[in-house]
Amino acid sequence: MTWQFTLTGLLIGALVGLTGMGGGSLMTPILVLLFGFKPTYAVGTDILHGAIFKSFGALRHRRLGTVHARLTLWMFLGSGPLSLAGVATSHWLKHRYGDASDSVMGYAVGAALVAGGLGFFLKGIVRRGIQATDAPFLLSRRDKLIATAIGAVFGFVVGLTSVGSGTFFGLVMVLVYPLTLPKIVGTDIFHAAALLWVAGIGHLVSGNVDLHATVWLLLGSIPGVWISSRFTLQLPEALLRTALATVLLLSGLKLLKVPAGSWILAGGLCALGAGLAAYGIRAWLARPRVRAYVERA
Q1: pTM of the model
Q2: pLDDT in tens, 137-146
Q3: Is 297 in the same domain as 156?
Q4: Residues 25, 154 within the same domain
Q5: N or C: which end of the chain has fewer CB within 10 A?
């Protein structure tokens, strides 16, 4: 199984490049639900793939000057060590409970996916508590403590489940720090890359990474994000955010083994597909009317 991984990587890379949103969060549920990976190996493979994959975006944002380096450092002081604690917890579960640990990890990943889906929804509706500004943001002692605490809490979640590196940190930064959106995005991606490298190496050492799958995923995802980032997807951000959040929620419910989870996943995906198709048809039908109106004017 090689080209299937490359195609998956290509689709994820294209989604991330086109939308700039957290499409990478879909990798773990895809590996578990479509390729039959055990949750522990899906998490480790996803994290190491994400570390390499997001490094390209991190370097690009650094060159653009959209990274708040000091804020990244203080978040990383909490997230780096605690991500290793998450890896260690995963490793302990595997050796303590054997095959039964897959069920525990499945529930943990499912809960994180549900939380990540809700985080995507909140990103679209939340209002800033602090006014954003282009002025230089100097971290106070309180800001540093908050950044380290944020890193510690969500770093552990990322190390254990691979979910949240592109969702939770950005959401909290929107609420707490007076950074512009480009600065939040750049700082989030740069920090995520650093965090994932630490957690990814931890999972690699623990034997939780399928290197064969990682290489073939990268063969698709790196060209996918490089090519697609040169184009702009003409879809409203709210629509994309809702679609991604819905897929994460449905995948999480499936891994949580809720009653009739397979039917909920299938029905939800069908409803989502129908909704996107309806939007596409509506947009396509509206195009001739707009042109005709312009021509009459």
Answers
A1: 0.81
A2: 888 999 999 9
A3: no
A4: yes
A5: C
